[in-house]
Design a protein that fits this description.
This protein is about 80% helix and about 0% strand. It is rod-shaped, with a radius of gyration of 34 Å. The relative contact order is 0.05.
Length: about 250
Amino acid sequence: MAGNKVKFKIVICTLLILFCLSGCSLSSIFSFFKKEPLVKGTPEGLYNRGATEFQDGSYKKSREYFTRLKDEYPLHELALLAELGIADSFFSDKEYIEAEGAYSDFIRMHPTNENIPYVVYQMGMCHYKQIGKIDRDQTETIKARKEFERLIARFPESKFSIAAEKLLRECKQKIAEQEFYIGQFYFRKKEYQAALKRFESIAREYANIGLDYKIEYYIEETKKKIATEDKLKREEEQKQKLKAAKK
């Protein structure tokens, strides 16, 4: 026992010397041997800290407080708002895939919550923010359109549905513009049947969004081109028949 006590004293002395050589104060030395308990914030305190960090643009830090609140007080009424705070922090940080996942989880866990219109709107915005140019893939545009349509159908009186109507029109216009872009591509390559299919699809599905006159013109011109090709084809077939009859 005496030998163990001596060894312990030697260890303590060695640590004290090392701390002193490294410039640590006595308070730092004593705190090394003292385990500080983790301070557990109140639900209100954690939420307020998260909200403050969010307003300051520290989205990752705000997410940490909201996550603590959700994990430490899962049954508290503020835990639900913390879930929204986590999703919003992802969205504001332009991490749209993570944000969409968080919003989707909220809908799954709280399908009848009063904030669902806002959440569906935000899911649409996650896709809307990722929309590319008309010569790029428009998958995000299509997904945004579906979310906005779902919002308007389910909550027609919501203020978020009113905001979504304008964005829905923009999504439809974007999709129509890409269809028109592809139609023009086929038209320039003289693939008139493929071009006509695109133009007629726009006229049928995307009327009154700003492309009506263009589409009407191209449908008429494309039909003229097809008629001219058909005429030339018939004339060529007739010539071949006459040649074959003379032989």
